[in-house]
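I had to read the description of the data format several times before I understood it. Each protein is reduced to its one-letter sequence and a matching series of backbone shape codes. The format is easy to grasp once an entry is in front of the reader. For illustration, here is how one protein appears when written out as sequence plus structure tokens:
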Amino acid sequence: MQILILKKDINYMKFYKAFFTVAFSLLLFSCLGFSKKDSITNNSSKITKNFTPSKDTKVAYFASGCFWCVEAIFESVEGVEEAISGYAGGHTKNPTYESSNTGKTGHAETVAVYYNPSIVTFETLVKVYYGSHNPTTINGQHPDYGSQYRSIAFYSNPQEKKIIEQMITKLNKEVYNGKVATEVAKIKTFYKAEEYHQNFEKRNPNQPYVKSVSVPRLNKFKKKFPELLKKESH
């Protein structure tokens, strides 16, 4: 009897060890598992502060999972002058990375895309948006889950709203069988994220999440839409 109990205890120990190993791995390789001290480089201020929009520059706002991934994707597109990571869509003022990750602020990790409309249209940016994430996933993009990683396409005017809604109608009919879960919302306030998040993928190529999630997602997009890429992004 003692031997049987011992074996049972060993099996439970193996189970819990395996469970916590998997849980730790998911956290490590997720955007949520990152903390400020893990950043390899913290000199991003000189990158974003040098950008000055021209009088013709427009801004579009998109949320589709971890903003490190989304920012890198849009910055690879011809006509996009800059992409800045931040927070939008919530009900609290001045959210931070830590507060947004609680899921209680209502904000989603969002990217402000500064673009030249004479080179790339808003409609094309919406195409990029839907071509670079799974819009049927509710509250998340693998391996990141929670309302802060939900899919939101923001609009600034009725024309942009119409373009987004037309794309959703098309995708629901032709691709996703009515399962698109993207929230469509008017942009109210965009809060720029902490400086260490800006251009995170470029500055931290060896960070585990970047190598295992962000770069593969970017490369998948590039392979799918080579005609939309900047020359240096090929």
Notes: The CA atoms of residues 216 and 228 lie 18 Å apart. Residues 1-28, 35-48 have pLDDT under 50 and may be disordered. The radius of gyration is 20 Å. Strands lie at 58-64, 80-88, 108-115, 140-141, 144-145, 151-155, 183-186, 191-192.
